[in-house]
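Lecture 7 notes: from sequence to structure.
We start with the chain below.
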Amino acid sequence: MVVAGLVATCVAACAAAPASAASAYWGANIGPHLTGATAPYDMTAADQFESMAGKRMSLMEFSLPWAYCNTDPCSFIPFPTNQMEAIRQRGTIPVFGWASYSQPLTMIEPDFTLAKIAGGAYDDYIRQWARDAREWGHPFFLQFNWEMNINGLWPYSESVNGNRSGDFVKTWRHVHDIFRQEGANNATWVWCATGEYEGSLPLKPLYPGDEYVDWACIDAYNWDYKFGPFSTVFGPTYDAVQAIAPSKPILIGETASTEKNGNKARWITDALTTQIPKNFPNIKGLVWFEKYEDRDW
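Predicted structure tokens for the same chain:
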């Protein structure tokens, strides 16, 4: 596995020269159940997770919306310099989910339609965020508007919130172009789909293009109602992503397995020792979802 000592290298370079099939970055998105606060806001949670796992993380994931709108006017969230630096000081690469919606979260947020974002309504905010990212100056993975192929749920889905077909790509490219203009080249752009399911949106029309994406990504879970091997959970979406973006390394942006209706330990062992190195060689990073959300992952 790629360990923390490699963090000094630019993660963007991995898009051009991915690691060997037996190597991958790994880490977690850590919830509040360990110490009462989430990492990176409370790094004792990260210490405890690493102690349980018996291995240091090379990735640490957290996420934020664009704004909190439980007050009037909305409060826009700046680039999280302190949290990014706290992760870097551990010798770890931040994996940051940046979502163009507000909280409290609903599927219908008319102030945050994709057309408004692509049309420039939030350019000042995006530009300042990119400048702050550039000034911080260290590599990080940027998961912008992840799981965009879910039919509903997120207000940036093309199936809700007044969004139309083609709006997602226009928005992605618009935000990416601003980062280029501001010289925020330390961001590695991660296009992250949810595992395909019956009724999910087609992936190909949601792909911004190779020049706008550094890594591809998949979020998928082993659910108790259909407990299955890693190959079943990831195989179809992996093949679909490979067909769309064959030159891009793949990050598992979120994954976990239930304890019910199967052997969780065996599932993890099979994933890490057999499936990823032998059958999914383009997976170059994995983030474990160490949280309780609707069930205990």
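Points to note: The CA atoms of residues 193 and 218 lie 5 Å apart. The longest helix spans residues 167-182.
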